[in-house]
Amino acid sequence: MSAYYDLYETPVPEGEEPKSLHARVCSKGTISGKEFMERVFREEHMPHAMVVGIVQAITTTLGDWLAKGYTVEIEGLGFFSTTLKCTHPVMNKKEVRAESVKMSTVKFRSGIEFKRYVAGKMELERADKRFFPDKPKAMGDMVAREKSMMDFLEANVCITRAEYSRLVHVTARRASRDLQTFIDSGVIRKRGAGRSVVYVKG
Predict the structure, then answer these.
(1) pTM of the full predicted structure?
(2) Summary mean pLDDT of the chain
């Protein structure tokens, strides 16, 4: 299955010459942790409980080392590290106290082997403008929106709320109501939870 991409303008400060376009992957959605572990379970023929246990052990151990200030390498995958932030603007180093500094985020830098693996597996295809339009046409008809969504799902495994919103040019709130209506009528099914929610054909 191909990964879809499109070309976008590179932002430049006002008055400067336009830069060349840059390519970016058009996301098909998010694979939930549960789906990820189920695939490992199926393809690697490992007991489900073992897969869950290994992932939990790696997560806990990784978190413990990061909390102690280490950069952690997971062989074959890459490097994890943390970044910090001050809780309020600081102009003088003497103003900073430990309680004024908090962790900001966890960063990931992929290793060379992992980059090569993904690059070797990736097949790129220019995004179909019907499914990833720059300026999608507004669709006031629920039937038309459903047809557009089903056309998208014929070409893709799943759709996210954000993708649906862009596809039919409706607000996030309207998209949520539409998707719930489609679920209630059995047209689609909801998979995942929180930020990992995707919708598949019913």
Answers:
(1) 0.58
(2) 84
